Backbone:
């Protein structure tokens, strides 16, 4: 083993290119749309994108943590639907913004706890376990709402998500705070180290004294709470909630996280990657909409873009074995 | 088909793994590659077999310069590697694994009969016999390795790189493998043998190439070399004693006391002590239950009955975390499966068990860095920085990273399961030194080892196990290789001597 310095510079350039590939690609999309589509680079449009993506960012932040820990949570879509139903029941009875949000978060937290315990202590594959609990959560959602549409009775409640602060909506700010918290947790705390170790090598982490089961449960609890918060914010914004609402956010989130470069095999990834992934997809969808592309083709192209991004990533990592 | 390597260099980031390497490997020989950890042996093997691409230089096969762009291309030229981590499909039998991907087909259907016939023919011509009636996961490591060799032969490999093939084999299995290697050579195959076991290297090779720091020191015949001459060339230093002198422990107080430890079919009625300053070796054949006992003490697996006492009081250890809190450290048997988080940095791997102490709300990076720096040095890890991923370290340095982790906890009981697996001679000596030193400072050390010289050279006391029971305990002058072997193979256990 000998050390040289001359070559390291060119090698660093190469690794900067591949390590941050998703950033460069997202920037390219941004620049391309700015140049080609008039309405894209306007304060209103960008503000709207941020506002729309706020709930996606919140769910994506903790989904990233679950993925890094080696787990997979498809039930976040169901939690995103269930939590606001309970929260709106609370709002209908006690008209308090804080208690409404708290109720939504709490529901997500309990649902996440159930997921985590089943996965960690039941030793059931997390994809299958959360697929099963999705059904349960949807079922409870129908029970809670009696199959009806629930409404926010006090319209001023919307201020929770629509208040403008420095030009951005409060929903956007809430998302920023949540993302920052997740980022710090993953990067700067003991918990974050545990997440990476459990996802990287579960048995090695256990033998190194990591309470692996607790770490897994904590990851699912956080993800559940995030989905509960996001769902509640979304329903407050749209003032209604029902059990048959669109739960496809979980697909958008997983797509964004994976496009960002977090591995579904566990052990590697980053919050910033998911943030970039969310905006990569958001910009593309926005570009389609501004240019009036038929939604049917939008979906197909979107799928192809995701496959390309993930494929390119796998390709660039291929000989790191 | 002679193989020639010309001015080959390979660099990983700022590390030069191979520096202008020139080497001729004659067809039909066993050619050994030896050198310290990180010397570049595996890198050279991986370049020849297409796993890595060379940066500059060329490889010639039978006088022709060739490109080796992938393992597939290497194989098409007749070169393949048997890596240390075997890559078999555990649930399939030997024949299925051998012909995986090159099955005989009739339309979409695999012709099982043909595969079976071809497998039998292959085992007959090669003389390598393995059971084919069970999934390979039920085979011993030695037999699994034979399946890998058969797989290489079935693909018409002429040159087989074997990277530390004996590291996980018992003494008997190693002898069998060496016979297989010789018979392959006699059939005209070329074998590139990477190993840290100099005795095997001297015994089996036709030529030996010694590497250091990515360069070739020399290539010579085994008849011109001795164990010590090889060590000197590898390390650049005079070869010293293989083992540090044994310092008899003076305090008789047992640190660890195990009474009647029993678990199901794996081990029964295990009782022994390890005193402060004492090195106790658990010896026995692979599968005799040594690792299982160690894991039970460490809280990695539960046990059914019995008790574990630490410094006189019974402790209840249900998780490794409790063991670590109680001052027990363990280096597990398999560093890749049970020890390291390969894609994280050396730093994070060392500090992992101690994060509670190293963090409040956030990680205390400064304290972490100083803990890591101290133990990185103490364990003698050779790497550019502690921020490198563990994956990018050579095998021996990965093992040292595990030592650094254990040392960082200042344990009172140190359990090391095969502590020198994959470690070069120089570092082996350093690890022995480290263990002896820890004992001298009053630590209780429990070593599990399949290497007899290690057991004999290190231990104050040897406990020999056989099929889950203790069959002998050897102290002082009683400790010798032959005594350990005869105890490990003895029939005593059936007569119930353990009780
Ligand atoms: N994939 C990689 N990325 C970065 N560095 C690497 C990589 N593979 C090897 N190296 C470095 O190249 C050098 C040579 O490593 P190599 O694995 O060839 O050593 P070795 O002689 O096989 O050692 P050992 O006996 O410990 O297995 C080491 O310094 C190692 O850290
Ligand atoms: Mg090696």
Residues:
């Amino acid at each position: 083993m000998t050390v040289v310095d001359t070559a390291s510079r060119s090698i660093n350039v190469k690794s900067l290119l591949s390590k941050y590939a998703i950033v460069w690609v997202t920037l390219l999309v941004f620049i391309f749309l700015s140049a080609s589509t008039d309405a894209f680079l306007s304060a209103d449009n960008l503000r709207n994108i941020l506002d729309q993506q706020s709930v996606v960012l919140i769910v994506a932040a903790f989904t990233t943590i679950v993925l890094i820990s080696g787990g997979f949570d498809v039930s976040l879509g169901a939690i995103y639907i269930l939590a606001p139903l309970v929260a709106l029941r609370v709002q209908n009875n006690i008209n308090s913004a804080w208690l409404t949000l708290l109720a939504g978060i709490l529901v997500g937290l309990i649902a996440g706890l159930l997921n985590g315990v089943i996965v960690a202590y039941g030793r059931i594959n997390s994809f299958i376990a959360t697929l099963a609990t999705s059904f349960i959560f949807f079922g409870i959602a129908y029970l809670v709402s009696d199959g009806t549409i629930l409404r926010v009775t006090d319209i001023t409640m919307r201020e929770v998500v629509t208040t403008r602060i420095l030009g951005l909506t409060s929903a956007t700010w809430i998302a920023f705070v949540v993302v920052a918290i997740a980022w710090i947790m993953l990067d700067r705390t003991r918990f974050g180290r545990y997440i990476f170790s459990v996802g990287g090598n579960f048995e090695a982490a256990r033998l190194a004294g990591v309470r692996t089961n607790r770490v897994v449960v904590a990851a699912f609890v956080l993800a559940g709470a995030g989905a509960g918060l996001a769902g509640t914010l979304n329903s407050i914004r749209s003032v209604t909630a029902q059990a048959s609402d669109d739960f496809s956010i979980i697909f958008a989130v997983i797509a964004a996280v994976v496009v960002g470069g977090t591995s579904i095999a566990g052990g590697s990834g980053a919050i910033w990657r998911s943030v970039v992934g969310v905006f990569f997809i958001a910009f593309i969808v926005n570009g389609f909409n501004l240019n009036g592309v038929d939604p049917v083709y939008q979906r197909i192209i979107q799928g192809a873009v995701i496959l390309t991004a993930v494929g390119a990533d796998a390709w660039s990592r291929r000989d790191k074995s | 088909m002679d193989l020639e390597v010309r001015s080959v260099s390979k660099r990983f980031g700022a590390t030069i793994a191979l520096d202008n390497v020139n080497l001729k490997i004659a067809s039909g020989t066993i050619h050994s590659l030896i050198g310290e950890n990180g010397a570049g042996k595996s890198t050279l093997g991986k370049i020849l077999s297409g796993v890595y691409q060379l940066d500059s230089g060329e490889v010639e096969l039978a006088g022709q310069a060739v490109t080796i762009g992938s393992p597939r291309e290497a194989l098409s030229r007749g070169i393949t590697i048997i890596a240390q981590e075997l890559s078999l499909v555990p649930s399939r039998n030997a024949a299925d694994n051998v012909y995986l991907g090159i099955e005989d087909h009739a339309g979409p259907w695999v012709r099982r009969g043909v595969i079976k016939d071809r497998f039998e023919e292959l085992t007959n011509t090669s003389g390598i016999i393995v059971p084919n009636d069970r999934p390979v996961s039920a085979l011993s490591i030695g037999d699994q390795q034979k399946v890998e060799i058969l797989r290489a032969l079935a693909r018409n490999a002429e040159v087989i790189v074997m990277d530390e093939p004996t590291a996980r084999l018992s003494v008997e299995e190693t002898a069998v493998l060496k016979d297989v290697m010789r018979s392959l050579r006699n059939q005209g195959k070329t074998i590139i043998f990477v190993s840290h076991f100099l005795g095997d290297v001297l015994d089996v090779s036709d030529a030996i190439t010694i590497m250091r720091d990515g360069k070739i020191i020399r290539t010579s015949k085994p008849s011109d070399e001795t164990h010590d001459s090889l060590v000197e060339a590898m390390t650049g230093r005079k070869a010293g004693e293989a083992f540090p002198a044994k310092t008899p422990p003076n305090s008789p107080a047992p640190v660890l006391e195990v009474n009647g430890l029993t678990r199901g079919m794996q081990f029964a009625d295990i009782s022994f002590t390890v005193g402060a300053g004492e090195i106790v070796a658990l010896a026995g054949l692979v599968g005799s239950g040594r690792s299982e006992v160690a894991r039970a003490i460490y809280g990695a697996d539960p046990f059914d009955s019995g008790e574990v006492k630490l410094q006189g009081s019974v402790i209840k250890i249900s998780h490794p975390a409790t063991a670590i809190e109680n001052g027990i450290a363990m280096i597990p048997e398999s560093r890749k499966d049970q020890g390291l988080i390969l894609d994280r940095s050396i730093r994070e791997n060392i500090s992992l068990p101690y994060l509670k102490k190293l963090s409040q709300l956030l990680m205390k990076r400064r304290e972490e860095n100083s803990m890591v720096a101290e133990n990185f040095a103490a364990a003698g890890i050779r790497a550019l920085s502690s921020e490198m991923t563990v994956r990018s370290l050579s095998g021996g340095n990965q093992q040292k990273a595990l030592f650094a982790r254990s040392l960082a906890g200042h344990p009172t009981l140190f359990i090391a399961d095969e502590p020198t697996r994959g470690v070069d001679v120089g570092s082996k000596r350093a690890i022995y030194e480290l263990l002896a030193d820890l004992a001298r400072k009053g630590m209780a050390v429990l070593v599990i080892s399949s290497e007899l010289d290690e057991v004999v050279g290190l231990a104050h006391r040897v406990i020999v196990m056989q099929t889950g029971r203790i069959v002998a305990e050897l102290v002082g002058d009683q400790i010798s290789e032959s005594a350990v072997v005869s105890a490990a193979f003895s029939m005593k256990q059936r007569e119930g001597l353990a009780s």
